[in-house]
Amino acid sequence: MSPAKSVVISCAGIGSRLGLGLTKALVQINGRSLISWQLELFKDVEDLRIVIGFQANDIIEEVRKYRDDVTFVFNHRYFETKTGASFFLGARHANEFVLEWDGDLLVHPDDVKMILATEGEFLCYSEKTSDDAVFVKVDEEDNVLSFSREYGDYEWTGPACMCKKHLTYSSQNVFNMFEPLLPMKGIKVRAYDIDTYDDYQRVSSIVKDW
Amino acid sequence: MKFLFDLDGTVTSQETLPVIANHFGISKEMEELTKQTVQGNIPFVESFIRRVNILGDLPVSEVDNLLGQVPLYPLLHQFIQEHLENCAVITGNLDCWCKQLNAKVGCQAFCSHAIVEDDRVVKLEKILRKEVVVDHFRSLGETVVFVGDGNNDLEAMRHANFSIAVGLTHNPAKSLLSIVDYIFYNEKALCRQLSQLL
Fold first, then answer.
1. Alpha helices in A8-108 (DSSP H)
2. Does the distance separating the beta carbons of A56 and B182 come in below 8 Å?
């Protein structure tokens, strides 16, 4: 049996759009850091890999309050690169299947369990909640056909599960890495990005019920 | 694939110099020097020469016996034992002090070298520059992974294909955080990554 999938959380960015002066992993959601919410969701994942760059020391310190057995992966070029680079660096020496997870993404705990239990490659999307987003077009069997900045059936939020051999380096967004691989199996989830201050307030309200 | 390991505090779960210093009652002097060196405040070569001057009068066989008893990280030691051809330890320590310890680790070892007469160090002959060993293996076509924790591992890490900082015994030198690919604070997680790299 092959080992369980690795999970790569990309936390290297500077969180400039949120405007709270902190890398997003350290932003407080109802009294707890965003990364601590994610650590709770992934507490049973053995190979948990956190990609760090901006405020790396602070993230390490925060994560180690909860667990010590995390693989910290550095993206030293976090200022010039996007999530594609962080995901590649986090995944290149991981297990065969790797779950890509943006550091600013929270997903309903029941959906996280389903995602972790689902085998093979897939992309996750959610209902549209933002105008400033990337959208996906899907077919009647939920397969993702394309990404678009202009239109689509759902909002691309991630996560995505990929076989390591299909990944090539990209300094761009993580969805750019997946475009050549379309169509791919799609799964609809309850996922919430925290890109802007409005997102932040919305997610703070949603997680009260978790 | 070649895994090159710093020895002190990376493969051993205790730093070796304090062990020697405690045993021979010269702790205070050595502690300060070691601390300043690990933090990068005193260049490694200067620190090493000063250490050898302090420790050189001690009986070599007694130091060797003492270091032979220093505990190793068990899972990491097991990984090395299972992949002897892929592993080597790289230490600035003198070869004459580390014979038993290196034998216990089991893989190839690269050390600094001194001439010994009448069980005493009489002349420091070669101070190991770790990056030279990295370059050697790379010139043979090996992909080199360097694993260490101290400021004196910095150049070797720069020269390696991949570098791993470890915070098992103490926090790694801050200087390493701007160049390493990975950092680990847990032995099991470190060994998992080594296996994934194979």
1. 34-41, 56-63, 83-91
2. no
Residue identified by tokens 């990984």 is B79
The tens digit of pLDDT for each residue in A76-88 reads 999 888 899 999 9
**Extents of the domains making up chain B:** 2-197
- Sign of the four-CA dihedral A2, A96, B6, B34: negative
Q: How confident is the model at residue A17 (pLDDT cuts 50, 70, 90)?
A: low
Tell me if B180 and A95 make a contact (CB, 8 A cut-off).
Answer: no
Could you say which of A64, A73, A95 has the minimum Cβ distance to residue B182?
A73
Residues of chain A in contact with residue B181, where contact means CB-CB under 8 angstroms, are 73-74, 89
Choose among A9, A90, A89, A1: nearest CA to A45: A9
The model's pLDDT over A45-75, given as tens digits with 9 standing for 90+, comes to: 999 999 999 999 999 999 999 999 999 999 9
**In angstroms, rounded to a whole number, what is the distance separating the alpha carbons of residues A141 and A98?**
23
Q: Do B188 and A74 touch (CB under 8 A)?
A: no
Nearest CA in chain B to A3: B196
CATH no. of A6-119+159-177+192-209? 3.90.550.10
Q: With 80 as the cut, is the pLDDT of residue B56 above it?
A: yes
Residue B165: closest CA among B186, B136, B143: B186
Contact A72 B196 (CB under 8 A): no
Question: Tell me: the pLDDT tens digits for B124-136?
Answer: 999 999 999 999 9
What residue segments make up the domains of chain A, in order of their start?
Answer: 6-119+159-177+192-209
Q: What's B2-197's CATH class?
A: alpha beta
A119-156 pLDDT tens trace: 999 999 999 887 678 999 999 999 999 999 988 999 99
Across the interface, whether the CB atoms of A74 and B177 are under 8 A apart is answered yes
The helix/strand/coil state of A90 is: helix
pLDDT digits (tens, 9 = 90+) for B14-35: 988 888 888 888 878 888 887 7
CA distance B59 to chain A (A): 40
